[in-house]
Amino acid sequence: MDVQVGETFKVPSSCPIVTVDGYVDPSGGDRFCLGQLSNVHRTEAIERARLCIGKGVQLECKGEGDVWVRCLSDQAVFVQSYYLDRKTGHMRGIGVHKICPKMYVKVCQLLLGSGLMTFVAYASSG
């Protein structure tokens, strides 16, 4: 599942909320449907996963670039998030976080990420 499928979906800055779902019929610039993508690499297992995504997730950009996820699906979704790693005390990037149906969770804090990148750049310059 590490093969890019289709073009990058670009959301206009005037649209702070976007829905990503498993359906096939997009209806506007604020919704991205995974089912509409054709993919020669799509296996039966991937198709079942897409169907489980169902109503999907809603991504919301708030404040100074914070990203929040709302699980709209009847199934939990899993995200990789350095922000949640830090909040939960987990080692960065080695696991995923479960977001249960109806949960609304902050998964990214732009200012924290920006500060981390500045620190890493400074530390590596040596």
Automatic annotation (TrEMBL):
GO cellular component terms, A-Z: cytoplasm; heteromeric SMAD protein complex
Keyword Kinase applies: no
SUPFAM superfamilies in the record: SMAD/FHA domain (SSF49879)
GO biological process entries: anatomical structure morphogenesis; BMP signaling pathway; cell differentiation; SMAD protein signal transduction; transforming growth factor beta receptor signaling pathway
MH2 domain: residues covered: 1-126
A Pfam family annotated for this UniProt entry: MH2
GO MF term (any one): I-SMAD binding
Keywords: Cytoplasm, DNA-binding, Transcription, Transcription regulation
Keyword Metal-binding: no
Predominant location category: cytoplasm
InterPro entries: Dwarfin (IPR013790), SMAD-like_dom_sf (IPR017855), SMAD_dom_Dwarfin-type (IPR001132), SMAD_FHA_dom_sf (IPR008984)
Entry's localization field: Cytoplasm
Record-given protein name: MH2 domain-containing protein
